[in-house]
Amino acid sequence: MNTRGVALACVAAALLLAACGRSEQPKTDAAAEQKAAAERAREGPYGTQLKALDKAKGLQADLNKKAEEGLDRVDKMQ
Fold first, then answer.
1. From the centroid of its chain, how far is CA 38?
2. Confidence tier at 13 by pLDDT (50, 70, 90)
3. Element (H, E) at 28
4. pLDDT > 70? residue 53
5. Beta strands per DSSP E along 1-78
6. pLDDT digits (tens, 9 = 90+) for 18-46
7. CA 25 vs CA 30, 35, 51, 53: distances in Å
8. Quick count: other Cβ atoms within 10 Å of Cβ 42?
9. Contact call for residues 50 and 38 (beta carbons, < 8 A)
10. Which pLDDT tens digit goes with each residue over 62-76?
11. Which distant-in-sequence residues (6+ apart) come within 8 Å of 42 by Cβ?
12. Secondary structure element (H or E) that encloses residue 26, with its range
């Protein structure tokens, strides 16, 4: 084997070892970043839409609760 072949083999081995290494973990918490981004959005140009969405989710929860209470009353009547 000549010198050029040995050099190419060493470079290939180094690239293979570098590719198999572990990647670094992100230094930020994904959940915390998502929460912070949502808070920034509420203060930005889409704030009114996000506040309306939050209100609609609250209404949905309230309606579901009332529906369950109604079903419980009907079950007790039978």
1. 12
2. confident
3. none
4. yes
5. none
6. 666 666 666 778 888 998 888 888 888 88
7. 11, 20, 34, 33
8. 14
9. yes
10. 999 999 999 999 999
11. 50, 51
12. none
